[in-house]
């Protein structure tokens, strides 16, 4: 046994002085001992006679494992030995005539493990084998505090390991829990309750820690024992007495409050629950919540009051008689002020559950025909609670303002925390909009009046409330300014908070102004106030760059909404923004960074929307646009002219500047419609054409700079929408330059641009497409495989992913060509050589590609080509060999063999869509080729798939009929029958 103890000590050693190899050997030795037949006897002996806590713990842990795993294979004698020994140890009993086992004098982790072993025995043996365990334990409680403490540990372990339904349980465990609870109710629960009462009464002044332990154990059991054992003239007064007496320790008082919470939350019929709640006279504890708000007692009493309020609300919802509802509401009205106080002033673990209760309360108020003054007052109190809860802690003020790591974490936490509280706010706003608006008005007024050194969090909370309240208002109410909105919005717009320099305050202020923009839209007299808010130091000119950028974006949104009403203010707006625009038009590149340009571009978009309206006089419009475009283009020209003499250190900075300018011009152009620049005011169109000419030079001077190519491509997209067909003369040069040394990612961008051009101009674009298609086809076919991409380990590289994206975009490109009457492009002399590889690529993809939607696109391309190229009126083939390719190769491989593969899953929705296209393809082939298709498909394809003559004949009948749904249904059935015979092993040929 000395060896075992040494090995255990080595296993548990935390000093770091034991060599890992020795520790491994010790572990193996201990594991080997566990396999011995007499392991239970060994463990019991060591528990009794060893004074080493590590040894006691290891032996108890091993005993627990052995009983749990091997109980069914143990002999009755072995079970009896364990039962007798463990119970004796738990009751401070003697193992023989001379020795008392002193485990109960050891640390808590030893006693908890002992309790776990006892509970495992109870799991298997109570009540059928060991029916007297609880009664026997009760008889030992007279031995004093140590045994009482151990009894409570056993009860707690029983709850944790077996009874408590908060933990996931198997059906077997639930059945065992029911068995144990039923037996305890019948046999010993009344005695246990009497023991609890007696112990607490006896030890309340002498051993408060023991009483706390007893009450904590009792709290767990109240949920499933007879409530009458607790709710009586003895126990309830005792519990309230413990809670209310000042002299007792907080832990004991809190434990008593926990028991009262369990009593109030006990599940029962609503009428019985109502009587119970009345009998508790909960008002007795209201005064306790005004004590030290951080104390454990106040937290426990807060949980009691909230639990009580939850139950009173449930009674109101579930009882039908008006008298009972009235009593429930009285109880609720009585307790709610204390619940509100607790939420506002105390640290609680259960904030979430309180918010859920308040949501339920507000939802109940919504069902009432008319709210009484008390209920309206309570809704106001809920708003106070919300304001208190959503306030940031001032200790994070600097972190949040600079948005360092701590500030970012706190902001993210608060965003998540506020979600339910804002839902609650909006619900109150719907139930009592007037109460909500008055509260918000008062909050804003209080915040404005506050001194600047402490009101940051107050102001931010008040503004956040006003912002969130807006979500509860419909568009009509916001436009008309219902309620106090007509007072609140002007108040918001005219206010300059002393703490407006704070990032959080400035951001929420701007977001709130934007939220109520529809009110301003209907009340034009406030437009000048909105413009001031966005254009002065509260917005775009705010010292914090993050605020300034966000203000630019929100200003752009406001401009888009107010648009026409801003025409009289254009001069003032442009003047206010002059310094920001100059940031782009100045030659000082050193202070720029690209991210700033992306955000600053919103200013240009806003200006574009303003000056791009037809309501602006033509001469003014030209002047405005010229004053912006000319310096920007001059900067680009200067940069391009000096490109060759740039040093490696200078080049990245200059390239970034060009990117900024392109983004700015792109954004500016968004405000100009195609009709305006091409029809009503062609002079404006000429300016954009000249700008396009300048920016296309960027592709010539910097042909291999991907970010620049991307920005220029984006601008061409914009010009396609702005200039319409007048952009055509610039396209050949642009497309040619974009194709030079283009990488896969750039090819995708080029294909997307071509798709836009085709979709917008259809056959008008055919001449340009004829010119560029051969180069594009040659470039792409040279870099993507005709068959599948490699798969397996090491193939999921960035390069392969980019090529797959090129392939997918190519199929979309081909689909767009064919569906816009441009399939003749494939047949032009320059493109003819690419027809064969393109057909092979489409064939393979339509049969084998792992993406079902890509396969569908390829089948649709074939359908369109069949319609375009086949069955000429004079019987001539438009594309020699195409008809035979379709009948002999596409039809059998795609429309038959590919479907026989088990990977073609009919239960998948996308696969069913593909299947529908394949059936449609057969219908189109029959309409175009007649019996040439049908004979080959049935005589060559079906026999290879082992299709019976009978099924083949039925197929012919269905195909020749007019019901496409019936054909689809039949063909699915046919494929499924053939699969059963072939197991999907037919290869695509």
Q: What are the defining features of this structure?
A:
single chain, 989 residues, mainly alpha, 47 helices, 0% strand
Quickly describe the structure.
By secondary structure, the protein is an all-alpha fold. The protein contains 47 helices and no strands.
Fold and architecture overview:
This protein is mainly α and 989 residues long. Helices cover 71% and strands 0% of the residues. The chain has 47 helices and no strands. Helix 10 packs antiparallel against helix 11 and helix 31 (594-611) runs parallel beside helix 33. The model is unreliable at 587-598 (pLDDT under 50).
Instruction: Quote the beta fraction.
Output: under 5%
The overall pLDDT, averaged over residues, is: 89
* Helix amount: over 70%
Largest sheet geometry: none
What is the end-to-end distance?
76 Å
Rg from alpha-carbon coordinates: 41 Å
Give the SSE map.
Layout: H1 2-11, H2 20-34, H3 39-49, H4 53-70, H5 76-90, H6 108-125, H7 133-140, H8 145-163, H9 171-187, H10 189-203, H11 208-221, H12 235-244, H13 250-264, H14 270-280, H15 296-318, H16 322-345, H17 351-367, H18 373-390, H19 397-402, H20 405-431, H21 433-449, H22 456-469, H23 475-480, H24 485-494, H25 503-515, H26 517-522, H27 527-535, H28 545-562, H29 570-576, H30 578-585, H31 594-611, H32 618-641, H33 651-669, H34 674-680, H35 682-701, H36 706-723, H37 731-739, H38 744-761, H39 766-781, H40 798-819, H41 835-848, H42 852-869, H43 882-895, H44 909-929, H45 931-944, H46 949-960, H47 964-982
Helix pairs in contact: 1-2, 3-4, 3-5, 4-6, 5-6, 6-8, 8-11, 10-11, 11-13, 12-13, 13-15, 14-15, 14-16, 15-16, 15-17, 16-18, 17-20, 18-20, 20-21, 21-22, 21-24, 22-25, 25-28, 28-31, 31-33, 32-33, 32-35, 33-36, 34-35, 35-36, 36-38, 37-39, 38-39, 38-40, 40-42, 41-42, 41-43, 42-43, 42-44, 43-44, ...
